[in-house]
Amino acid sequence: MVMDITQSKIVTYMNRAEGMVHIQAKSIILAMGCRERPRGALNIPGFRPAGIFSAGTAQRLVNMEGYMPGREVVILGSGDIGLIMARRMTLEGAHVKVVAEIMPYSGGLKRNIVQCLDDFGIPLRLSHTIVDIRGVDRVEGVTIAQVDEHMKPVPGTEEDYDCDTILLSVGLIPENELSNKINVQMNAVTSGPVVNESLETNVEGVFACGNVLHVHDLVDYVSEEAALAGKNAAKYVLGKFGGQENSAHTVTLEAVDGVRYTVPKTVNVGRMEDTVKVRFRVGNVFKDSYVSVYYDDERVLHRKKIIMAPGEMEDITLDRKKLLGYPDLKKITVKIERE
Ligand SMILES: Cc1cc2nc3c(=O)[nH]c(=O)nc-3n(C[C@H](O)[C@H](O)[C@H](O)COP(=O)(O)OP(=O)(O)OC[C@H]3O[C@@H](n4cnc5c(N)ncnc54)[C@H](O)[C@@H]3O)c2cc1C
């Protein structure tokens, strides 16, 4: 386990065989993943009975350790892990009674809603949250209620469910304690580092990828990003990674009008590969809308999408040849337009 990293790239780790070890790295890739948001962050009233698990813990218990966390299940939050566990628990013989989601849309992939809930007749109650948990030693039941536009429970909408287990799928938090130690600049929206086109952070030679950078729904994108970070870290170590001095110019990416963030945040046109994939998420459900990209004030992309949702990661591709045709470009804006 890595305990510490320093600005001068000294990495301190420990394990049973070697004890505590310090190594002088030339480059570091931050790839610590994320952790699940716990119940404590949620302020649900009630006692602290057994039977409340994060969905990832339940996944580990069922898939790796062969234990069933419970039989009568209510799931709070519709993140992908919660949706996948609704199906998994059902296949293992549990009765998943309901999935309650506080937002008016699911946080998971559409295909997981269809394949993990709809196919098994598990109801998804949007704009609902748990307002009470019954049980002292073990969970005995929950009350869910509808919430208004301020996320406040609406009196009179309460529904009771008897259950022995609650699974929480209420978000993931990037593991950025080590990143903070070396003053890596953070993006308040993703809670991950701000990176350039090479996935390098503001600390030279320190790269980031995967869930520590921004939360991914699919491992395929994580693998792509990891390969890019690895390649660039290797170039850095070999002295083949162009610095700012090699740059034609650096352009900033701005996320506005429905786009919550972009990864990367800047593009060094002199150093970028022939193409750079820019990933982003939208902040709401958009139907029959357009992903638009502006080079300063000129619209250069206007791509229709039938549906976009916060649970699905979107991307656009920047082309180096095209960018070289805009030597004075300062800003690339990514936004959602209705028409
Ligand atoms: C519970 C859960 C279930 C998921 N299920 C799926 C799925 O079924 N399919 C899918 O496509 N995607 C799934 N995902 C999505 C997930 O985004 C990716 O699959 C992928 O695992 C993320 O890769 P990563 O390398 O960024 O992080 P991780 O796979 O989390 O790897 C990070 C690693 O870093 C280690 N680490 C952290 N801090 C330190 C430290 N200080 N020192 C040493 N090591 C450290 C961690 O222990 C961990 O092993 C799931 C995500 C979660 C959280």
Task: Walk across the major sheet and give the strand order.
Answer: 6-13-7-8-9
Hetero groups:
flavin-adenine dinucleotide
Q: Major β-sheet, in short?
A: 5 strands, parallel
Which second-level CATH architecture of the largest domain applies? 3-Layer(bba) Sandwich
> Got a strand count?
23
The CATH topology of the largest domain corresponds to FAD/NAD(P)-binding domain
| Count of individual helical segments | 6
Which CATH top level class of the largest domain fits? Alpha Beta
Tell me the CATH superfamily of the largest domain. FAD/NAD(P)-binding domain
What Rg, in angstroms, do the CA atoms define? Answer: 23 Å
Q: In the residues, how many domains can be counted?
A: 3
Q: Sketch the topology as an H/E string, one letter per element.
A: EEEEEEHEHEHEEEEEEHEHEEEEEEEHE
Strand content: 35-45%
Summary of the model, kept short:
The chain is an alpha/beta fold.
If you had to describe this structure to a student in words, what would you say it looks like?
The structure is a single chain. The protein has a five-stranded parallel sheet. The model has no long low-confidence stretch (mean pLDDT 93). The longest helix is centred in the C-terminal third of the chain and has 19 residues, at 219-237. The protein has 339 residues and is α/β, with parallel strands linked by helices. The protein is globular, with a radius of gyration of 23 Å. The chain folds into three domains: 1-34 and 174-241, FAD/NAD(P)-binding domain; 38-170, FAD/NAD(P)-binding domain; 246-339, no CATH class. The protein contains six helices and 23 strands. 37% of the residues are buried. Helix 1 packs parallel to helix 2. The structure holds flavin-adenine dinucleotide. Flavin-adenine dinucleotide binds at residues 1-2, 31-34, 56, 59, 81, 84, 172, 175, 178, 210-212, 216, 218-219, 222.
